[in-house]
Design goal:
five-stranded antiparallel beta sheet, 1 helix, globular
């Protein structure tokens, strides 16, 4: 194959991958606003951020209820600061880790 034909193959592959990635991110991420009630979709373990808890200890359990305090981006990724009042913790989570509470 010539360089020209290989370039066409790679550009098509990159375009297809980019479209798939954008579609995955669109379906995985949710949009929340400050003050909105949310539910954790999975457990969140201490990564060393909480000095009063052991590393690896679960700080937020699956289905815990919380309130979004703020929405922000870091390196192009969307994050939410969420307070889980029953657990007395504030954690940073991605939209795909949260669900809206009806």
């Amino acid at each position: 194959m010539s360089k020209k034909s290989m370039g066409g193959v790679w550009s098509k592959a990159r375009a297809a991958f980019g479209n798939r990635t954008r579609a995955m991110n669109a379906t995985e991420e949710h949009d929340f606003v400050a003050g909105e009630r949310v539910r954790s979709l999975g457990p969140v373990k201490n990564d060393g951020t909480y000095a009063h808890k052991s590393i690896g200890e679960i700080v937020v359990h699956e289905r815990d209820l919380g309130v979004v305090h703020e929405k922000w981006t870091f390196l192009g990724q969307l994050y939410y600061t969420v307070e889980f009042i029953d657990r007395a913790v504030v954690v940073i989570m991605r939209g795909r880790e949260l669900a809206k509470v009806d």
